[in-house]
Amino acid sequence: KLRCDILVCGVEREEKVYIPSGNFVLKDQDRISIIASPENSSKFFSKVGIHTQQVKSALIIGGGTLSYYLASSLLRMRIKVSIIEINEERCEELSELLPEANIVCGDATDKKLLLEEGLVNAEAFVTLTNFDEENILLSLFAKKVSSAKLITKVNRISFDDIVEGLDLGSVIYPRYITADYILRYVRAMGNSLGSNVETLYHILDGQAEALEFAVKETPNVTGVPLSQLDLKDNLLIACINRSRQIMIPRGQDTIQPGDTVIVVTTIKGLKDLKDVLKKR
């Protein structure tokens, strides 16, 4: 009915996560996760009445390594970037490393400075200092005075249930990210000949994983239409990247050597693409 090329890859219902199959029926109050190209996701949001717009400017608090890499990526996307950093020496380094960014040397806890640097009109506000309390308070202030997209870094995970109730936008936990990288490395090391896990993310409150596999020749998987694969339950082939062409797969599509494939599942411990199949 919506005529958008999207795929629902996860459903949260009453604190339980489902990986939907073709006969799964959505219910009122379900929260869904989708995979789609940027163009098709925009069409989908428009048709369901969700207003979205591409961010054109970002205000980053803290000038550490994470801020540098984030700013570099945003600048490559032609997004205007301002960074507020309190250390003068680090500000000089950032000015040399990121000549296209606006580097401001000052204390980001100074409300006046934040307002002078355009917080009210900022489209994205990212707090990446080393202090959780500062990041949280700054995001709460930004939420009060602006409509910016909020991204808040929190280092300590022991109070994540409390943090989730503060409406801080997208909260990132470096420890979780580090754990994902370690898991990816361990799984890849144990499978040097197969289709290795290239990327791994815990999603949907850690109840599911999104894994990217680099595909090698895999018996009973490669060259077989997806509709004929005997896939495990609670597992979905969500996306195929073939020669930089992104495909939302259908039943007649096949996985080929050289592809990269994204799998979404609630099953823990997948190490190889062949693990998506039920054991015979």
UniProtKB/TrEMBL annotation:
Alphabetical list of PROSITE patterns matching this protein: RCK_C, RCK_N
Domain of life: Bacteria
InterPro entries xref list: NAD(P)-bd_dom_sf (IPR036291), RCK_C (IPR006037), RCK_C_sf (IPR036721), RCK_N (IPR003148), Trk_Ktr_HKT_K-transport (IPR050721)
Keywords on record: Ion transport, Transport
Ranges where the RCK C-terminal domain occurs: 1-51, 198-279
GO terms of molecular function: monoatomic cation transmembrane transporter activity
Annotated GO biological process: potassium ion transport
Positions of the RCK N-terminal domain: 55-183
Protein name: NAD-binding protein
